[in-house]
Design a protein that fits this description.
Layout (H helix, E strand, L loop, with lengths): L20 H23 L9 H8 L4 H18 L12 H10 L3 H14 L4 E8 L2 E8 L10 E7 L6 H4 L3 H11 L3 H11 L1
Antiparallel strand pairs: 1-2, 1-3
Helix pairs in contact: 1-3, 2-3, 5-7
Bound molecules: manganese (III) ion.
Length: 199
Amino acid sequence: MAFELPPLPYAYDALQPFMSAETLEFHHDKHHQAYVTKGNELLQGSGLETKTLEEVVRGSFGQNAGLFNNAGQHYNHIHFWQWMKKGGGGNKLPGILEKAFADELGGYDKFRADFVAAGVGQFGSGWAWVAVKDGRLAITKTPNGENPLVHGGTPILGVDVWEHSYYIDYRNARQKYLEAFVDSLIDWDHVAEMYEKAR
Ligand code: MN3
């Protein structure tokens, strides 16, 4: 299926002061749009034209690097916009997530420390994740456009640590950006929805 840029699910200035309108204008309108445009060009003749986005991501991994990078980033960004909301973040998790984080990630505080450390520790561009793999939650990180889908998992939360995601607002302070994402931006209801589907 052809890729299409979804509109942001909130106003460009909705996430201020944690993520500026300027960042979202560049990140959504320029960067995500470029993955969609380039991905559609590379989808032509790939043999994957009729597949779902998830199938294109899995089917191009290790086979067609150009298509994979753009399809992976398209998938990642579709969800990234939905993993944030105005007034989000913090430790008030929906019950189902609170229990799973306690049982499988050592609780909220350990999740926060490990998730931020995964993002800080990703050398260069990439993503930090919470994914369901083999029926359990795990915190991972990936380079560039990779995501847990190509490592046998299903992502339920991810954060973009490419510089275009934080440099306007945080300059080189990637850790401060990650802490603000966890403390003030995560839409936990959306994470819980993805968790219920992934289990
Ligand atoms: Mn990005």
